[in-house]
Amino acid sequence: MMWKPNVVVAAIAERDGKFLLVEEEADGKLVLNQPAGHLDEGETLIDAVIRETLEETAWHFVPEALLGVYRWPHPTSDVTYIRFAFTGQVRGHDPSRKLDHGIHRALWLTPEEIRRERARHRSPQVERAIDDYLGGRRYPLDLLKEYEPAVAALSSVKS
């Protein structure tokens, strides 16, 4: 079997000094994570982070910058995650929207509250993203290049 990493996206949204997180079930435990999930086939990274944030929190996320790209090999499985973390704002909340399966609730926590809950983080990426955000890391969204299948096929013929 050929190895391939899992591509995931995550939203880092701050409002009034608090960050949007989800409390979710993972590996049989209730853990904290940023709104995050897998990239679906045919979906752009931007579309994926908008969709995942809405599905997991009922907030409409507007990406503004790429925070970073993180590689994390899961310590108890053969899975390696490549996580594209985006910063942005949330606009509009639909409290009547049903959250994704496994999501217990969305919540807003301060950096101090997040650090105090370190033992409940889904991965070390949770705190690292907050630290990078607070450290001012931001990369323009146009760093990401998307190609449609027809364009990609033509490009490979010319090279």
What's the quick description here?
The chain is 25% helix and 40% strand. It is built from four helices and seven strands; from the N terminus they run E-E-E-E-H-E-E-E-H-H-H.
Q: Termini separation (Å)?
A: 30 Å
CATH class: Alpha Beta
The largest pleated sheet is described as: 7 strands, mixed
Structural class: alpha+beta
Query: On the 0-100 scale, what is the average pLDDT?
Result: 92
Principal-axes geometry comes out as globular
Q: Supply the CATH superfamily name.
A: Nucleoside Triphosphate Pyrophosphohydrolase
Order of helices and strands: EEEEHEEEHHH
Q: What are the segments in which pLDDT stays under 50 over at least 5 consecutive residues?
A: none
**What is the number of strand segments?**
7
Global Rg: 16 Å
Please indicate the count of domains. Answer: 1
Strand share of the residues?
35-45%
CATH fold node name: Nucleoside Triphosphate Pyrophosphohydrolase
How much helical structure, as a percent, in the residues? 10-25%
Looking at the overall shape, the CATH architecture is Alpha-Beta Complex
Number of helices: 4
Structure description:
The protein contains 4 helices and 7 strands, in the order ββββαβββααα. The protein has 159 residues and is α+β, with helices and mostly antiparallel strands. It has one domain: Alpha-Beta Complex (Nucleoside Triphosphate Pyrophosphohydrolase). It is globular. 28% of the residues are buried.
